[in-house]
Specification:
The chain has five helices and 27 strands. By secondary structure, it is mostly beta strands. The chain has an 18-stranded mixed sheet that branches. The protein has a five-stranded mixed sheet with strand order 1-5-4-3-2. A two-stranded antiparallel ribbon has the order 7-8. Strand 22 and strand 23 form a beta hairpin. It is globular, with a radius of gyration of 26 Å.
Length: 389
């Protein structure tokens, strides 16, 4: 009897040893792959998985564990290879939101009582006001004029932080402090910042940068764009990153215009590049299954001469699922960059990553508790998102 129990335990342990790695591997598999031509792709998963695409007319293929055991159907999309100019240069962004964003709520005193008309009407921080009193509003001043001239309740059309439309009735109240009509909310209509320009598509004249969305400093929500521009930026200095505190590139916006900012998405800032093209090298963009763990290069501008340079990094982990901007974990190994910046710092977001002579992705986030490491987005994700805009 004891021998049978021991055998059962060993069998269960063996099943767990086999099943757990398989489960981890299946969860890592992508839902879709892009193929330039027929052939087989080896995926960077916990256990070795390959996808064979030998039928030019098929829109799906089987992902096979060890090249033998089918574990998942993967959608197949066929495209031609894409080539882009990689920049790695610092650029500035100026943008006006598509409406005014509610960035905070604040009570005030009216008739001796604490009130907040905005909160009482159901308005939340992160909402974007599209119109007030039937009039489209794009600036703080336009919204303030509607409130100032209101004679009672004002109908507001908004989008919440998830993009869902809603309509509310707002009744401003007179403040005891100055007698003015107030709503009890703070709003913002514009933003500016510095980041890294990732690539320029010479065929379409489009550009992509940052690798993540431009978010409001208070709400941390992506700002919807009404209009914007990208401009040159100059570095004035660098604050090194240390464990627990993110470093940053310090700089200022220059004069002139490089292009028009057209969209602000979770995968980056995109638009049309209108200035003279920089003298940079053209690279073919890799699809995600071509990315490998191992050595790579990062193209960044961190010195006051404004010149992009290649720095050594290692791609430590690849993730085909989850957040679209956290596809890779990277680690800076370049002694010169570590001495200059401590690793990845704010302003380097968008720095293109090159591996095996191809554009494979861009830096997006730093690990605050370990500035040598950070996240990166697949080049494929940036290019796909731009094509959808």
């Amino acid at each position: 009897m004891q021998g049978r129990k021991t055998a059962n335990r060993l069998l269960l342990a063996l099943i767990a040893i086999i099943a757990v790695p398989m489960l981890i591997t299946v969860r890592q598999l992508p839902d879709e792959l892009i193929f330039y031509q027929n052939g087989s792709s080896q995926l960077s998963t916990f256990l070795p998985v390959s996808v064979e695409c030998d039928d030019a007319h098929s829109d799906s293929a089987k992902a096979k564990l060890f090249g033998v055991v089918g574990v998942k159907n993967v959608s197949i999309r066929r495209e031609n290879p894409k080539k882009v100019l990689l920049a790695g240069t610092l650029f500035g962004l100026r943008m006006y939101s598509d409406g005014v964003m509610v960035v905070g709520l604040s009570d005030f005193t009216s008739n001796g009582k604490k009130v907040n008309p905005a909160r009482e009407s159901g308005i939340c921080s992160g909402d974007v006001i599209r119109s007030a009193g039937g009039k489209a509003v794009y600036t703080n001043d336009e919204f303030a004029d509607v409130i100032k001239n209101s004679k009672g309740t004002v109908t507001l059309e908004l989008n919440d932080k998830n993009g869902k439309s809603k309509s509310v009735k707002l009744t401003p109240a007179h403040s005891d402090s100055d007698g003015c009509l107030k709503t009890g909310m703070w709003v913002r209509d514009s933003a500016a910042g510095i980041g890294t320009l990732t690539y320029i598509d010479t065929e379409s004249g489009s550009f992509g940068g940052l690798g993540h969305g431009i978010c409001d400093a208070d709400t941390h929500e992506i700002i919807p764009i009404h209009e914007g521009e990208i401009v040159p930026a100059q570095i004035s200095g660098v604050r090194r990153g240390v464990r627990g505190f993110a470093g940053e590139i310090r700089g200022y916006l220059g004069s002139g215009e490089l292009g028009v900012l057209e969209s602000n998405t979770a995968c980056g800032a995109f638009g049309r590049y209108t200035a003279e093209l920089p003298l940079t090298k053209e690279y073919e963009a890799a699809v995600k299954q071509e990315v490998r763990q191992g050595k790579a290069k990062m193209l960044s501008t961190v010195t006051t001469d404004g010149k992009p340079r290649l720095y050594d990094i290692v791609i430590e982990k690849i993730n085909y699922s989850g957040e679209p901007t956290k596809n890779m974990i990277i680690r800076v190994t370049d002694d010169g960059l570590l001495e200059e910046t401590g690793g990845i710092i704010q302003g380097m977001s968008g720095s293109p990553i090159i591996q095996n002579g191809k554009f494979v992705g861009a830096v997006t986030h730093v690990f605050v508790n370990n500035p040598k490491c950070g996240y990166a987005i697949f080049a494929e994700n940036m290019l796909n998102r731009q094509s959808e805009e």
